[in-house]
Design brief:
Blueprint: E1 2-9, H1 14-24, E2 33-39, E3 45-51, H2 55-63, E4 69-76, H3 79-87
Antiparallel strand pairs: 1-3, 1-4, 2-3
Length: 97
Amino acid sequence: MTFLVIEKFNKDKIKLLYQRLEKEGRLMPEGIEYISSWIDIDITTCYQIVKGANIGQIQEWLTRWAGFAEFEIIPVIDSATASKIVLSEESQELKFC
C-alpha cells in the first residue's frame, strides 16, 4: 500500500530532528519503502510518500519519531488507479464528497 505521511514538526525540535535524521537515517523498519518527500518553505511540515504492507507498519515507524512531530497517515492511490475505479461499473458503490 502507498501512504501519504504528513509530518508537522515540533517547532522546538526541528534542528534536533534533522540532526538525528542525518546521524541515524529515517529509522524505517524492514518492509517500508521511502519514495519521496517535500517540505514546505517554512520548514514546518513534511509530506512523505512511503510504501508498506499496512498502516500498522507505518505507525510502528512513526513511533520512533514521537516527540519530534505529529503525524497524519493517509492511504493513497495513484491517479490512473483512481480513474479505473471511478470509470468501472463498481464506481456506483463509491461515496463522493
